[in-house]
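sry for the spam today, last one i promise. C-alpha cells for design, 112 residues
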C-alpha cells in the first residue's frame, strides 16, 4: 500500500528506471543481461548466492513462450546451457512442495 503521492511517484520512477536499464541492455549487440541475485550469509561467515527464485522465474518465462524456446530445447548442444537453471528451478519447486506438506495438518500428523 502506498502511503503518499510522493512515495507512489518514487515507486513508479524506480520501476521505469529499471525497465529502461533492461531495455538498454537488450539494445546491445549481442544483448547483455545479468540476473539480479541476492546473497545470503552462511553460518561461520561468508555468503552464498540465492539463485532459486530467479531460476524458477526464468523457467516460468520459458514456459510462457515455450514455442519460441523450442529450437534451443531441441538442440542437444545448446539445451545443455539450461540444465543448471532447470536444476535450480526444480530444487526450489521441490522445496516449496516440501514446505506445503510440512504445514498441512493431515500430512504433518502422518509424519509424527
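last one done:
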Amino acid at each position: 500500500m502506498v502511503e503518499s503521492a510522493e512515495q507512489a511517484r518514487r515507486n513508479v520512477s524506480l520501476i521505469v528506471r529499471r525497465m529502461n536499464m533492461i531495455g538498454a541492455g537488450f539494445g546491445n549487440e549481442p544483448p547483455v543481461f545479468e540476473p539480479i541475485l541476492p546473497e545470503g550469509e552462511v553460518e561461520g561467515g561468508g555468503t552464498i548466492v540465492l539463485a532459486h527464485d530467479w531460476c524458477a522465474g526464468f523457467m516460468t518465462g520459458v514456459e510462457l513462450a515455450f514455442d519460441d524456446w523450442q529450437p534451443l530445447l531441441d538442440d542437444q548442444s545448446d539445451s545443455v546451457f539450461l540444465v543448471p537453471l532447470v536444476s535450480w528451478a526444480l530444487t526450489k519447486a521441490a522445496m516449496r512442495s516440501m514446505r506445503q506438506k510440512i504445514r498441512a495438518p493431515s500430512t504433518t500428523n502422518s509424519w509424527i
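Residues 67 and 108 are 40 Å apart (CA to CA). ok im logging off now
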